[in-house]
UniProtKB/TrEMBL annotation:
It holds the Pfam family Nitroreductase. This is Nitroreductase domain-containing protein. Keywords: Oxidoreductase. Belongs to the nitroreductase family. GO terms for molecular function: oxidoreductase activity.
Length: 197
């Protein structure tokens, strides 16, 4: 697949097949993605690859926190406190398109909540990728990590796999770090569903 084709065809998939992702494919994706540029070749990204029981454990923990009404405490603020135009219109258009495609009406709060909860199990994808960065690093390193994350998505497309980058997987970073035994010095940027669709 051409790079331009991978870019144009990349989408955030929210329904995956149960087909397993071969370890070799994950290795190939990450080997390719690591060629992302970074300031002074710092390569500031850290990752966790989750599958099987570990992925289930993390997903169940996140679902429980959300269902219990626990306030999310992400390592950083993803969205501004006050969203202004043109971002409000884009956000609303995205929400309408997503829920319309799923046949969920705006007033159907329970179905919307149920759909949201699917985030924590990566929409049925067999693999979850989690991206971390050291707390000591500055904003430039976050840009570098973003380029690495984009490379992961494009490399996955090149192998016929789909992805969905997910800020939702970073809502309760302390719990994720605790389950995975990851030090507090690593901020959780986001997660990503990976699989076949």
């Amino acid at each position: 697949m051409e790079v331009t084709e991978a870019i144009r065809n990349r989408k955030s998939v929210r329904a995956f097949l149960k087909k397993p992702v071969p370890d070799e494919a994950i290795t190939d994706i990450l080997e390719c993605a690591r060629w992302a540029p970074s300031g002074v070749n710092s390569q500031p990204w850290h990752m966790a690859v989750l599958a099987g029981e570990t992925k289930q454990q993390v997903g169940k923990a996140l679902v429980k926190l959300r269902a219990d009404g626990e306030k999310s405490l992400p390592d950083y603020q993803y969205y501004p406190t006050k969203i202004e135009e043109p971002y409000i219109a884009r956000k609303h258009a995205c929400g309408r398109a997503l829920y319309s495609a799923l046949g969920i009406e705006r007033k159907d709060i329970e179905s919307r909540k149920a759909q949201w909860m699917k985030n924590y199990h990566c929409f049925g994808a067999p693999v979850a990728l989690l991206f971390f960065i050291d707390t000591i690093l500055g904003k430039g390193s976050w840009v570098d990590a973003g380029m690495f994350i984009q490379n992961v998505m494009l490399a996955a497309r090149g192998l016929g796999l789909e992805t969905c980058p997910q800020a939702a997987l970073a809502e309760y970073p302390d719990v994720v770090r605790n389950i995975l035994n990851i030090p507090d010095s690593k901020k959780l940027i986001c997660g990503m569903a990976l699989g076949y669709a």
